[in-house]
Amino acid sequence: MKSNHSFDTLIVGGGLVGAAIACGIAATGSKVAVLDGGDRDFRASRGNFGLIWVQGKGADFPAYARLSGISARQWADFSDELRDATGIDVGLQQTGGYDFCLTPEEWEAREWEMRQVAAHTEGEFEYQMLDQAELRKRIPEVSNDLLGASFSSQDGHVNPLYLLRALHQRMHHLGVDYHAAQAVQSSRRQDGEFIVTTQDADFHAQRVVFCAGLSNQRLCRDLDMHIPVQPLRGQLLITDRVPRFLPAATLQVRQTAEGTLQIGDSHEDVGLDESATLEVITRLARRAVRIFPHLAQVRLNRAWGALRVMTPDGVPIYHRSAEHPGAFAVSCHSGVTLAAFHARQLASWICSDVEDPLMTQFSADRFDV
Question: Whole-prediction pTM value?
Answer without folding.
Answer: 0.94
